Amino acid sequence: MALLVQKYGGTSVGSVERIEAVADRVLKHKQQGDDIVVVVSAMSGETNRLIELAKSIQGTPDAREMDVLLSTGEQVTIALLSMALMKRGLQAKSYTGSQVRITTDSAHGKARIQDIDTESMRADLDAGRVLVVAGFQGADEHGNITTLGRGGSDTTGVALAAALKADECQIYTDVDGVYTTDPRVVDSARRLEKITFEEMLEMASLGSKVLQIRSVEFAGKYQVPLRVLSSFVEGEGTLITTDGEISMEQPAVSGIAFNRDEAKLTLKGVPDVPGVASKILGPVSEANVEVDMIVQNVSMDGTTDFTFTVHRNDYDKALQVLEVVAKDLNAKEVLSNANIAKVSIVGVGMRSHAGVATNMFKALAAESINIQLISTSEIKVSVIIDEKYMELAVRALHSAFKLNDPTAGVSEA
Amino acid sequence: MALLVQKYGGTSVGSVERIEAVADRVLKHKQQGDDIVVVVSAMSGETNRLIELAKSIQGTPDAREMDVLLSTGEQVTIALLSMALMKRGLQAKSYTGSQVRITTDSAHGKARIQDIDTESMRADLDAGRVLVVAGFQGADEHGNITTLGRGGSDTTGVALAAALKADECQIYTDVDGVYTTDPRVVDSARRLEKITFEEMLEMASLGSKVLQIRSVEFAGKYQVPLRVLSSFVEGEGTLITTDGEISMEQPAVSGIAFNRDEAKLTLKGVPDVPGVASKILGPVSEANVEVDMIVQNVSMDGTTDFTFTVHRNDYDKALQVLEVVAKDLNAKEVLSNANIAKVSIVGVGMRSHAGVATNMFKALAAESINIQLISTSEIKVSVIIDEKYMELAVRALHSAFKLNDPTAGVSEA
């Protein structure tokens, strides 16, 4: 008998029919003898409806009142799902964030969970009840309703699983797991059975939008096994877990991530003296532009070339700032390119496998793909290439690292 | 400077525009120096939408979860109205029933208020804030969300006014006050400036649907001056208050109430012995039929006639029961009539004015209206007449008691 926390997003509870389907799934797990805590989001569309209402009254709605308003979305879902469970003969009980006592700080709209009182939930679980908890919400120490911001329901799920010491936190979404890469780009992309938290974080931050980064960080920190599954298709999904849970046999690379949301800017011929990097990036960040990759080449003749990437939406703004900086620093010229793509290989296996980066570069060279920039972390190698070669590069790497071969994938522990 | 509790029903907050109009009215009162606590219902239509959702899932929705669901309706309104007040430069703060700490019993769907914690509200009022409280809801001692049932928002308003010792509880509705009788029946019907709680109770229970009986009882019990006003038209409305507040000059009759929702049943020739009334009405109430008027005529030849009225919806059921009872008691026959109307004169002045009933009967006789039944209380005389004479009777009585004459109405104290 396991204690499972199951989280269903807005699409999974988007209609009465889908709520009934969730109830069916919960019933099945309960019949298998598991204890279940369900975390739900607002029905899809509801949050946007409420935001529109608020904005039609107050251009920038008051943050406290916005939370009072938005929290009703999940409250509707918990009541309806509890009813659907009772119709199936289960004992069910709903909890708002305040009722659980999910205590947060007072940062309305982006509150952070500080404490979860499990006493009442524990008693209800012992009494055989299925608990249905409103995701995305809590209350501060004064009883003001707060919301956790984007991806907040995932965070609620993970936090409850940690507080209740659940065996698994299951995140039901519209995809059936984490893939070696995007199946729309590579036909032979394969669902991973397991992946580590660190790999998942790299995959997520590189554009794989299965889970919110914050909830993965949270799960990693509290060592809550996290499983991504489909609400609509039966399957095992992908288990996100700690290093130790994953076989030693594991291959160097677990997945290929990519995105074409970035643009590249280079300042050529800036003086190679201490402080120049901050003179360049200071004004950029003051303009609220976030920088992703930063590469500085070796110096020649006392000057160097400084390159960085930004989100493509910030491209124009960053370019304007850089033109000014270039004059101040007497730089030779500003180069820029928005037609780029970032392709990355991710895998904790890299730590113990030599030559992974070399294999990556070799595979790209075999397709005559020029590498414009390289950046590495302990479990990731990213390259910037011409946008038009992105799909080709992803397919070449997927094949080079044998990711289509299940026996070479992340094997079961 | 007065402390006012203002309650706005679903129609008054039924759209963004109407919420803005409520905010304008609150601003005006606040600018006049009053402290304001606003109690609001769910936006009109919202409660029905939620009930439909629930019923589509669970035929008879679980009572606890229904309250979790329905309470979101008012929660949306308090957030939106608070935003509208802030847009006008007021400091505003919303309170759910749980946040006030409106403690109720655990009778979901028809909970009774046990206690109201005014500490936090008092501090916010002292800080100059307008408080916006969700009507219709509270929480039991375990923190379960409860709702107060029909007319619950009126009850919340009156209970808050009592707890905060407010100067007045103002109920904003779609009518501009309490009238001497229904203006749709009598053109010259006149708005009353004042009426006593007792009169209001009689008027309400006789079909005048301006206020829920429960909130009037509550206001009377705690001596909270209650004012009925229109959300849409400026005006003084009608003040419902205690006897002492109303002039001694007051006329015998304050208003004419009527309804055609009843049916009459008579058992002729039953033995005039102790216990016969309960032998007749016992089976009727066991069939869950509520009885309104009961009249027993004097005995002749050891037998008597026993008549009572029931709601017209219960007419068939009551008749079935009575046929059986008639056999058991060897009654002569059962008479029944669903085409009747009840017309009543109401007024605390009757206590000190002799001959009021006589004047009533005289006025009806002048129109050749036959009286089928008579029943009286301390401040009311009701008669049952043929349904087709109802309007005629109401107009005759309205004129006989000079209710169209403002100087003869309930005068100001």
UniProtKB/TrEMBL annotation, chains A, B:
State which Enzyme Commission number(s) the record gives: 2.7.2.4
What is catalyzed by this enzyme?
A: L-aspartate + ATP = 4-phospho-L-aspartate + ADP
The record's GO molecular-function terms, alphabetically, read: aspartate kinase activity
Q: Which Pfam families match?
A: AA_kinase, ACT, ACT_9
Ranges where the ACT domain occurs: 265-348
Keyword rRNA-binding among UniProt keywords: no
- CDD domains reported in the protein's UniProt record: AAK_AKii-LysC-BS, ACT_AK-LysC-DapG-like_2, ACT_AKii-LysC-BS-like_1
Q: Does the keyword Kinase apply?
A: yes
Pathway the protein contributes to: Amino-acid biosynthesis; L-threonine biosynthesis; L-threonine from L-aspartate: step 1/5; Amino-acid biosynthesis; L-lysine biosynthesis via DAP pathway; (S)-tetrahydrodipicolinate from L-aspartate: step 1/4; Amino-acid biosynthesis; L-methionine biosynthesis via de novo pathway; L-homoserine from L-aspartate: step 1/3
Gene3D superfamilies per the record?
Acetylglutamate kinase-like, VC0802-like
Domain of life, per lineage: Bacteria
Cite the InterPro entries for this sequence.
AceGlu_kinase-like_sf (IPR036393), ACT-like_dom_sf (IPR045865), ACT_Aspartokinase (IPR054352), ACT_dom (IPR002912), AKii-LysC-BS (IPR041740), Asp/Glu/Uridylate_kinase (IPR001048), Asp_kin_monofn (IPR005260), Asp_kinase (IPR001341)
Keyword set for this entry?
Answer: Amino-acid biosynthesis, ATP-binding, Kinase, Lysine biosynthesis, Nucleotide-binding, Transferase
The first-level EC class reads transferase
- From which residue to which does any coiled coil extend? none
Family in the record = Belongs to the aspartokinase family.
- What NCBIfam families does the database record attribute to this sequence? asp_kin_monofn, asp_kinases, PRK06635.1-2, PRK06635.1-4
Supply the PANTHER family for this chain: ASPARTATE KINASE (PTHR21499), ASPARTOKINASE (PTHR21499:SF3)
Q: Protein name, please?
A: Aspartokinase
Q: Which organism is it from?
A: Marinomonas ostreistagni
